[in-house]
C-alpha cells in the first residue's frame, strides 16, 4: 500500500495535492452541484457588472471609474451590494458542505447533497463568526500598515526625514510576514468547526495549536495547489477569451472555472487538517467515525450511513 492508498497517513505536499484531485474526481458530481450554489450568484454578479460597464460606455472596453460610478443609481448600488453579500454567504455554505463531503469520504460514509447542506447550515453561525474574526484580524493589520505608511509619507513631505524608504520597506515586509503567519495559522479552521463542532473562538485556538510547527508544510501545499490551479485557469481563460472574447458568454464561462478551483482549494484544506491530526494525534477511521456520530447526533434527518450500508463503492484512494 502506497502513501496515497491509506487515507490516514501524513501526506507530503505533492501527495496532498494528488489526493485533493483524486477526491474531486471521485465525487465530482456531488461536489459540482454544491459548487454551483456559489457559482450561480457569482455569474449573476458578473453579468450585472458587465451590464453596468455597457451602460457606462456602450462598448466592451475598460471605462473610467468615475463614469461607472456616476452612471449607477443608488438602487443599482444596493442591488449589487446584496448580490455580493449573497455570493459571500453562499460561498461559506458551499465550503462547509464540500468539507463535509471530504469528511465522509475519509470516514467511509455515504454523502448526499441534502445531508451535506444540512450540516453546513448547522455550522453556519460558527463558520460565519470565524470568517468575520479572520477578516477582522487581517483588516487590523492592513489599517496599521496603511496608517504607518501614511505617517511616513507625511514625514517625507513635511519633515524631509532621510531613510524613510527603508523604514517603509521594513514595515511592508513585517506586515506581509504577519499576514502570512495569520493565514497559515488559521488555514484549517473550517475543517475544525465541521469535524469537531467547535465555536469560532475555539476553532481559532485549535487551529493555532494544530498547525504549530507545520506552517511551512501548509505553505508549500497551498502554493503547489495554487500553482496547479493557476496554470489551469490561465489556459482555460485564454481558450474562453479566444472563443467568446469579452461577451456575456465569455463572462459566464470565465465564472465556471470556479466549479473546479473552489472545490480543489477547499478539499486541500481538509486534507491538510487530517494529515496534521494523523501526525500529531494518530487519527484513524474509527476515531473519526466516532466523532462524526457524536457531533452530528440530532441534526435534522442526517443519516450516518456507511458506504457498505448504502451499497455504494468504497471511496478510499
TrEMBL record:
The chain crosses the membrane at residues 82-107, 128-153, 165-195, 216-239, 251-274. It comes from the Eukaryota. Keywords: Membrane, Transmembrane, Transmembrane helix. This is Glycerophosphoryl diester phosphodiesterase membrane domain-containing protein.
Amino acid at each position: 500500500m502506497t502513501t496515497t492508498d491509506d487515507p490516514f497517513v501524513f501526506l507530503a505536499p505533492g501527495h496532498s495535492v494528488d489526493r485533493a484531485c483524486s477526491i474531486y474526481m471521485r465525487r465530482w458530481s456531488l461536489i459540482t452541484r454544491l459548487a454551483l450554489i456559489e457559482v450561480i450568484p457569482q455569474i449573476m454578479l458578473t453579468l450585472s457588472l458587465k451590464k453596468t460597464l455597457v451602460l457606462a460606455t456602450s462598448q466592451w472596453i475598460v471605462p473610467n471609474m468615475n463614469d461607472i460610478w456616476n452612471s449607477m443609481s443608488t438602487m443599482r448600488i444596493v442591488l449589487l451590494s446584496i448580490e455580493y453579500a449573497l455570493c459571500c454567504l453562499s460561498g461559506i455554505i458551499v465550503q462547509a458542505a464540500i468539507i463535509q463531503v471530504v469528511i465522509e469520504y475519509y470516514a467511509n460514509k455515504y454523502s448526499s447533497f441534502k445531508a451535506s447542506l444540512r450540516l453546513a447550515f448547522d455550522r453556519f453561525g460558527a463558520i460565519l463568526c470565524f470568517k468575520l474574526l479572520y477578516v477582522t484580524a487581517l483588516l487590523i493589520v492592513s489599517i496599521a500598515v496603511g496608517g504607518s505608511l501614511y505617517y511616513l509619507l507625511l514625514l517625507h513631505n513635511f519633515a524631509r526625514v532621510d531613510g524613510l524608504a527603508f523604514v517603509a520597506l521594513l514595515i511592508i515586509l513585517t506586515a506581509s510576514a504577519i499576514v502570512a503567519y495569520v493565514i497559515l495559522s488559521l488555514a484549517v479552521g473550517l475543517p475544525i468547526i465541521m469535524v469537531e463542532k467547535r465555536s469560532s473562538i475555539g476553532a481559532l485556538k485549535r487551529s493555532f495549536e494544530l498547525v504549530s510547527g507545520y506552517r511551512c508544510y501548509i505553505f508549500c501545499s497551498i502554493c503547489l495547489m495554487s500553482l496547479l490551479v493557476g496554470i489551469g485557469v490561465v489556459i482555460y481563460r485564454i481558450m474562453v477569451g479566444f472563443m467568446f472574447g469579452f461577451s456575456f458568454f465569455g463572462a459566464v464561462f470565465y465564472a465556471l472555472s470556479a466549479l473546479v478551483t473552489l472545490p480543489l482549494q477547499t478539499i486541500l484544506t481538509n486534507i491538510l487538517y487530517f494529515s496534521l491530526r494523523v501526525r500529531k494525534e494518530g487519527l484513524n477511521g474509527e476515531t473519526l467515525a466516532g466523532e462524526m456520530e457524536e457531533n452530528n447526533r440530532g441534526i435534522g434527518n442526517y443519516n450516518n450511513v456507511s458506504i457498505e450500508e448504502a451499497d455504494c463503492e468504497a471511496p478510499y484512494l
